[in-house]
Amino acid sequence: MATTSPINFDVNSLRTQVIATYDQVAREPNAHYHFHRGPDYARDFLGYEREALAAIPDISTQRFAGVGNPLAIGPVKPGSTVLDHACGAGMDLLLAARQVGPRGRAIGVDATPAMVQAATQAARQAGLDAIVEIHQGFYEALPVPDGSVDVVISNGVLNLAPDKGAVLKEIHRVLKPGGSLYLADVVVQRELTLEARSNTELWAACIAGALVESELPVIAAESGLVDGHVVQRFNCFYDTAAEAKVAKDLFIQSVNFRARKPDSGPARRGLAF
Asked: Which fold is adopted by the domain 11-260?
């Protein structure tokens, strides 16, 4: 099970490459990339609603590069607290903020400074900055207290993480008992070679770090989450450079996946605030 990177893998190089890729997306959203982006892709490929997207500033929607639609997985209740643990320019985060309303809270974390800046500006333009807070940081060490979040949303993130178990355990830590994970991510149908898994360029392309689909509920369960299951599939690489090179041959697609933290039980220890 490829839940961690190969032993000789340069994790720092991967992190640098991923941040550089999404820094470029933040600064040049209309440049050519191996993946789809933008509001038309979100609407036509992933099922986002036109009216909902129209309420989100262009600085956010134009930089959207997700692989699924986590907010279609389950409800986000008014007054709840939602965390997007790698929010990018904030499209999913702001959509969630509109759902939680003025008594709720929407928290975004992202490792790319230019994306944090774009998300912050978008929240201000949308008039949502009173309920949205955005931090620069990493998904393995979220600046959020234990058991404080009702819903974690994740869109195209887990495949980029060298240690997927650590990411999911951190999600378990911050969720309240009974809280939900709405995750969209890239999966493959057969295991990749060690050579492919060791290629940082393929990791940054959202390919080499993808889990085999059957592994996703297993690693979620190992991280303390329950009821993990796929609810929808997408061909997120359709008609892209990635599909032309490798995605079609490797049966790569993306999925919407849902899991939850058990209603009771010992919380994992983490940050104290």
From this structure: Rossmann fold (3.40.50)
